[in-house]
Design goal:
By secondary structure, this protein is mainly α. The protein is built from twelve helices and no strands. α6 packs antiparallel against α12 and α8 packs antiparallel against α12.
Length: about 260
């Protein structure tokens, strides 16, 4: 019954501004996955308004996975697996914990907590940068655990782990291609693992939603191609500053 109702919800009878928001979401997803981390957080609140909070997560997940595959195909050789292997187990723990407590914590309250945590992380990272570029990146186990668990929570509640991972990888001072490649592999792994939850537990992915997802593919590809082109043109130092700014901007949208 839920699947039938949801299929009816995602018909092609959207208002013009809703179609515009849907297309913008596709472009942002493509740009995010090929280098401009955090842009999807700008569209997440809008998608939640149009389709509902939980329904929108199921609607976006297959598109995110498609974009992850595009990013991995292009940047696969640049991934830093030592960071992925540090984060994934903790992220799965965060994902499992989020499932257990999802009905106990209001979604908006969780978004406030995540937003405050990301801002705090950015402040600490900037403070560390100001103390000296030659300082070693954080290596304590609890640092990876903290960001991994937070990312698992955030991606489960609203596909909003991008800013959290960005702060972690910026703290590691990765070059831009390594940043993008590591991000792409990490989210492909986590998003594929989320599929059974969305399909069988929350039942917000169906044949109807997948059909509707196809309307977004050309815009995701366009955004991805634009991201690849822009990354080549941006110097390393400028790229780091751009990601910091986008992370802060996307975090502010968590408070909406």
């Amino acid at each position: 019954m839920f699947l039938m109702d949801f299929s009816a919800l995602v018909s092609y009878d959207l208002l013009p501004w809703q179609w515009a928001a849907w297309i913008l979401t596709g472009l942002c997803i493509g740009l995010t996955k090929t280098g401009f981390s955090g842009l999807t957080s700008v569209t997440i609140p809008v998608m939640a308004v149009i389709f509902g909070a939980r329904a929108s997560t199921g609607l976006m997940l297959p598109v995110l996975i498609f974009a992850d595959i595009l990013a991995v195909a292009y940047y696969r050789k640049h991934a830093e697996w030592k960071y992925i292997l540090k984060l994934v187990p903790w992220s799965l723990a965060g994902l499992a914990a989020a499932i257990l407590v999802e009905r106990l914590i209001p979604v908006q309250a969780f978004r406030y907590i995540m937003g405050a945590s990301i801002v705090a992380g950015l402040i600490v990272m900037l403070w560390t940068d100001l103390r000296g570029k030659n300082r070693l990146p954080p290596s304590k186990w609890w640092f990876s655990a903290l960001f991994g668990i937070a990312g698992g929570f955030a991606t489960t509640f609203g596909n909003a782990a991008g800013p959290i991972l960005a702060v972690f990888l910026l703290s590691m001072r990765l070059p831009k291609n390594s940043f993008v490649g590591t991000t792409a592999w990490f989210f492909l792994i986590i998003n594929v693992m989320k599929l059974p939850i969305q399909i069988f537990l929350w039942e917000n992915i169906s044949a109807g939603t997948l059909l509707f997802n196809l309307t977004l593919i050309p815009f995701v590809v366009t955004g991805a191609a634009l991201g690849v082109f822009l990354i080549k043109k941006i110097p390393e130092n400028a790229y780091r500053k751009i990601i910091m700014a986008l992370t802060l901007l996307s975090t502010l949208f968590l408070f909406i």
